Amino acid sequence: MSTPHNWFFREGGTDGGGGPLVILDLDGVISDASHRQHFMRGAFKDIRGFFNASPADPPLAAGRALAASIAGDHTVAILTARPHYLAESTRAWLAANEIRHDLLILRPSEGPGSRGRSADFKRMELHRLRASGYEVVAAIDDDERIIEMYRAEGVFALYTHSGYYER
Ligand SMILES: [Mg+2]
Questions:
Q1: CA 122 / ligand 1 centre spacing (Å)
Q2: What angle do CA 165, 8, 16 make, to 5 degrees?
Q3: How many Å apart are CA 141 and CA 46, to the nearest integer?
Q4: pLDDT by residue, tens only, the chain of 167 residues
Q5: Cα–ligand 1 centroid distance for 142 (angstroms)
Q6: 40 CA distance to ligand 1 centroid (A)?
Q7: pTM for the whole thing?
Q8: Out of 34, 38, 68, 92, which residue is the most buried by the measure of CB atoms under 10 Å away?
Q9: 29: CA distance to ligand 1 center in Å?
């Protein structure tokens, strides 16, 4: 399988060799997006405003430490429903905050996964990771709907509470 256009391997990291892999969500797990939740509240959601404010996120110390603690023979994939147009600013943010990772996956700009529920996008990427030879050993997310999807797919999934989602 050729590398999808929305997959970004970090220079100097692993580059698609397969093997054990841990999936980490970004917003609410590694980055603190609480200062921009107001864009998504109320009758008129400002989705672009919400995403465009993401470079100002402070890192979450616990999430950064968690990423750093993952065994070196495991690929760390950050799988986020941020749109593809945030690729450059997100890569810069991960580098500036020294977030350990090997692969960043954002929503594709078009085609399958570009629209619709985040859980469906992340399920599609889980299947592509497996098809690329990765064994997904664990996943961490702050959205219970994503956790349910991972568990239904047989992934050991851990939930962390950010408070961004209401059920
Ligand atoms: Mg999240």
A1: 12
A2: 110
A3: 23
A4: 688 999 999 987 666 789 999 999 999 999 999 999 899 888 889 989 999 999 999 999 999 999 999 999 999 999 999 999 999 999 999 999 999 999 999 999 999 999 999 999 999 999 999 999 999 999 999 999 999 999 999 999 999 999 888 76
A5: 5
A6: 14
A7: 0.94
A8: 34
A9: 6
